[in-house]
Structures are given as C-alpha cells and as structure tokens.
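Meet our chain:
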Amino acid sequence: MADLVHAFRRSDAEGAPSDRGEASGLVDRARVLATDFAKDAARLDAEAAVPSENFERMAGTGLLGLTVPRRLGGGGGDLRTAGAIIGAIGKAEPATALILAMQYNQHRRVAEGRWPQHIADRVGREAAGAGVSLLNALRVEPELGTPTRGGMPATVAARTASGWRISGHKIYCTGIPVLSWLMVWARTDEPDPRVGIFLVPARAPGVRVVETWDQLGMRATASHDVIFEDVEIPADHAVDIALPSEQQGPSPIDMAWNAGLIGSLYHGVACAARDWLVRFLQDRVPSGLGKSLASLPRFQEAVGGMELLLATNTRLLRSLASDTDGGDVPSIAESGAVKVAVTENAIAATQKAVELSSNRGLSRAQPLERHLRDVLCARIHTPQDDSVRLTLGRKALGSA
C-alpha cells in the first residue's frame, strides 16, 4: 500500500546523505508519537481544541527543531525527512501536522533569510531547545484576504523612540494558542511605506486572540483571529522589511517546500481514510453474502483505483523532495502543479472511501467523515488551484 513514510526512505545507493540514519530515527520517533496522537484526534476535532499536549510530547525530541541549523542545536533537516514526518503525523492528527509544517517552513526561511543574525539565532535555539517554541507567519487580513493575490497590508508598524508599535487585525492564524513567535506582515507609517516581517512575541501586551475558528475541517488548528493593539516591539524586530518594489516574492525553494509539506500532510489524511476502508471491507460480512466485502471484485477494483491515486502521490512527493534536496529545485509553477495534483488525488481517494462505505463512513462515530472534512481543506492552501491552473494555462498558450 502507498505509505508516505516508507516512500521517503531510500537506500544510500540512491544518494542518501551521510546522516540518513539520524533522519530515519527522527521519522521513526514521529511514527511512534503519531500512534498516540491518533488516539486523541477525534476529541480534538470535536472540541476544536489545539493539540498542545502533542507539542509537549515532541519537545526535546529533535522534531520541533528539525529545520533549524545544526549550529543552533537543530537538525538542519531536508525536505525528504520533513515530508516523511509531516506525512506520518498528518495520517494520525492533521492539525498537529499543519502547525508543525508551518514551523518547518518558517524556520527554514529564517535560516536562509535576511534577519538580523542575533534574532534568527535566538528563535532557532528556542525551537531546538528542550521546551516548546513554535513560530508562524500571520499574513491574511479581513479586507485584503491572502496577500498572494496582491495588495498592501492594513496592519501598520509605527515608529517609536525605541522601536515599533504594531496595530492591525490578522485572520486564519494557524496554531495561535501554542505559538511563541509571530511573523507579522505589516507596512510602516513612513511617507514611503516599507513592507515586511515584524517579529512579535505571541504573549506581548496588546496581542489579543479572538476565537473565531469554527470550520468544517482541520478544527484543531485553532486558526483564530489576532488583534494587535499598539503592540510595542524593539527596533531590531523589524526583521525583514523593504520598499514594495524591493520585496522578494516566494522563491522556487519556498514553493517546493510548501508543496512538499502540504502535499505530505493531506496525503497522510487520505492514507488514513484508505486504511479505515480496508479494515471495514475486510470485517464487513453481510449475512446474505457469507464472506467479506473485500472478496468482491467490485470493491477490489475500486480500492485499486484509490491505490493508484496514492501511489502517484508518493512518487510525486518523493521526486519533489529528491530534486529539491539535491539542488535541482523545481520551478514555482512545477511545485504548484505537484501541490494541486497531490491534494486533488488525496481528496478523490478519500471521497471514494466514503462512497464505498455508504452510510457507515458518514457516521460521526467513525473517523472517515472526519478525514473527509479535513482533506477538503487542502484546497485553501497557497497556491490555490485556480492560480496554478491559470499560470500553467497562460504559459502553454504563450500569454505568460
């Protein structure tokens, strides 16, 4: 069966790095923890409760600081390892996996970005330390929507005698109850405004969380609104700001990591749906049939179709990670295509599981309906499907 964790395990002959044993150990550690995470997933979903205990379990294991540089105590991990970990945890409790995926993405960017060195080192050491220190970017706003569609943020950073004062409103702040640091996208109040990232301690005076998150799926991400009311930060916490004309958009490696981690997460959800269906078909023995549903060619072929989708996903994700880690980074358009293909395959496979299980699969007493609600959230992540298709279509038609 298609299993993302095993798909990312390749032999030394296939070009694995010298520390592959250490990476494999981290993946195994994630798999063990994921077994326990799965036991509480239904409760977290029902209560829309952030999985804080899961992160406490990961503290000090090396998992939270995987993409932090080694010199700071982190793992310096590659996409192959990160994808395998996110896939394993996503299969068990996807909200935990999404918050962790954001941690991996943001710390990789910090390590490769333009931040003041002492600030980058501080947040990196904290993430790699014995406690729980989580980082995420807060970019989306009520009026603007996602900034990937263009526009200036309404959140303002005003100059003070000692630093900056942040005021604004962010939405869809994934994992906000457990975050330690917030990368707030804002504009300055200067005559020629600069735009960029202001690093804000999550519990600084003036940071207010408004519990608005009540979604169909990925409920335990607790992606509430955050209001910034004159939040004071030091001058050096303007970690990466520039004039709009000087702003650097997402790089090919940013998009490859995003596609790899988001794809791995939702592929994991689809694998969980597949596993539930297989058990159901093997255990279900209708009295009029006298044998399990798994023995019928109709179900065998249908499950085979699901396996085809999942096997395609493992190949796409493996190839994306291998190329990226090897320095042959895919283009932004290609990574976007992988994200769309993998998530659409995951959705299709999960929907097929629901179709084959009929009423049983839609019962709130079964995890399959939760897997369906969660996997549908794959479509909202950047890049959205329509923008990927538009880019690819324009290129093919010579209109790019």
Observations:
- Confidence is low (pLDDT under 50) at residues 4-18.
- The domain at 137-246 is CATH 2.40.110.10 (Butyryl-CoA Dehydrogenase, subunit A; domain 2).
- Residues 29 and 61 are 8 Å apart (CA to CA).
- The chain is about 50% helix and 15% strand.
